[in-house]
Amino acid sequence: MTIDLTLERVRRLASQFSYKRPSIHVAGTNGKGSVACLLASILRASSFKVGKFNSPHLISIYDCITINDDPVTLELYHECRTQVEQANEQIDARASSFELLTVTALLVFERAAVDIAIVEVGMGGRLDATNVIPDECILVSALTAVDLDHQAFLGATVDLITREKAAIARQGKPFILGHQRDSSVGSVAEEVVLQHGGTFVRTMIYPFRFRRRRSSRRVDKMSNLHRMPSVLRSAPRCRYTEHINSYNLSLALTVISLLLRDSSCAAVLPELIHAITPETVRAGIECASWPGRLSFHTMPRPVTPGSIGDPLVLLVDGAHNPASSEALASYISNLTTHIPSLSRTLHITYILALSHSPPKTPEQTLFPLLPPRCRTSKPVTVSVAVLRFHPPDGMPWVKSVAPSALRAAVSGLVPNADVWATQDDDPADNQLQRALEWTELQANKIRDEGGEHLAVLAGSLYLVADFYRLMEQLKAPNFLV
Fold first, then answer.
1. 336, 335, 299: which is closest to 314 by C-alpha?
2. What is the average pLDDT across 60-65?
3. Backbone φ, ψ for residue 23 (5° rounding)
């Protein structure tokens, strides 16, 4: 299935409804979900009622539309969705599934009377359905890190992709550029923003240092860590702000700063200047939580029936392109570097699935991860499970890379790796369960031999979603601590 990027359909559909919510619009290749999460948390801590629209959804369609961090209720979602679908039929707009979802989200925010809506771009920006939000509603537009992704739709170079993403800029409104690896992004984005009549602002870099809070509750939650490998005992325990990308945090705080000092923002929502304080900003950052990003999880019991080993512990991350894989690889490297006494052999088992998204290749996405670039005194060995994920609801164009292609890519990067793979035509059901059972065997074997084992699940947010659904079925807590 192809994607026909245009605003004509969604504009016709959205014109059937009134939308007046003050909104923050966030685009980018990597980091836009994290920035949206941080902004929502800070604004919630400042006593605002906050709506947030992210895509794709993680476990169900409802979790991509949240109000004060809670998924939209089934009743409100279906009430708004029904009205949107009826309007779509009446005017014969022929809106796509994402366009229907976007207008539904905006209608939900309007019906719920949120104070502020934070809207994440689905893909690109200029022709993305979220760009239908009226100019007068936009408080600030923001652009996170831009990299190669979706080239078939957005352009073959970073500069072309930047032009598409920066085109969410609005007349007379601030546009904030986050930190970029490619120096040309800044000049291209500034040119586009000025063409749209926006105000171009570069992110201010903030130094961060978060203190660990000691509490009996925290100690109780960590009481089971003695049963884990030392490599995991030394890791940040799912404290989002302890390993968040500082550039994303700087971008979020620059947005907050602009909300407070830009006259166009004050004209739309004058309460901002009184409600946001240094205390609410810090509280919001410390409370921020973003599932599927550098998160440690433990299975509630051994995955394999009858196993007497310790429950499997995994590092879960939605890294799905070269830039996000590089960030995950850097985190794993830092994790092992900060263990002063890692004298035993370290073995990493990856559980990987990728979306088919040419011209991006599996080799390009996996190159930063394989082989691991851990700075240890002993060699790091690797095993890899490759599989398919369940296609997300309402997104039939999303396809898994064939396991045989993933196996070939892994073998080319780490020829000596032990690779477990499903058949290309195997149904997606139970693939993750089988991969976890194999990973558990790897972990038990390495520990029996006196080594350290780290399990990493990555490659696609859709695989992460499969993992969370499996955890729900097993009645496990979402986070280790």
1. 299
2. 88
3. -135, 150
User: For 78, how many CA atoms within 13 A lie in the half-sphere containing its CB?
Assistant: 3
Residue 374's Cβ-count burial label (10 Å; 0-12, 13-18, 19+) is buried
Looking at the structure of the chain, the number of domains it has is: 2
Q: What is the pLDDT of residue 2?
A: 57
pLDDT of res. 234:
36
Are residues 319 and 272 both part of a single domain?
Answer: no
Separation between Cα atoms, residue 92 and residue 201, nearest integer Å:
40
Pair (268, 362) in one structural domain: no
SS3 state at 99:
helix
3-state helix, strand, coil in the chain (%, to 5): 45, 15, 45
| Burial of 414: CB neighbours in 10 Å, binned 0-12, 13-18, 19+ | buried
Residue 49 lies in a domain: yes
Is residue 184 included in any domain, yes or no?
yes
What backbone torsions phi and psi does residue 443 show, to the nearest 5 degrees? Answer: -65, -45
What is residue 145's DSSP assignment?
Answer: B
Domain co-membership, 411 together with 340: yes
C-alpha to C-alpha distance for 92 and 244, rounded to whole angstroms: 44
**Given this model, what pLDDT does residue 400 score?**
92
In a shared domain, residues 202 and 338: no
Starting at the edge strand that comes first in sequence, how are the strands of the sheet with 199-202 ordered? 70-71, 65-67, 50-53, 116-120, 23-27, 138-143, 174-177, 199-202
Instruction: Out of 103-107, 163-167, 308-312, pick the least confident.
Output: 308-312
Lowest mean pLDDT among 78-92, 240-254, 349-363, 444-458: 240-254
Three-state DSSP class for 328?
helix
Same domain, 326 and 251: no
Classified as helix, coil or strand, 324 is helix
Q: Say if residue 229's pLDDT is above 60.
A: no
In degrees, to the nearest 5, what angle opens at C-alpha 175 toward C-alphas 147 and 200? 95
CA torsion sign for 306, 309, 310, 311 is: negative
Rounded Cα–Cα distance for residues 312 and 114 (Å): 41
- Range of the structural domain that residue 394 is part of: 295-473
Mean pLDDT score, 331-351: 76
Residues 25 and 73 in one domain: yes
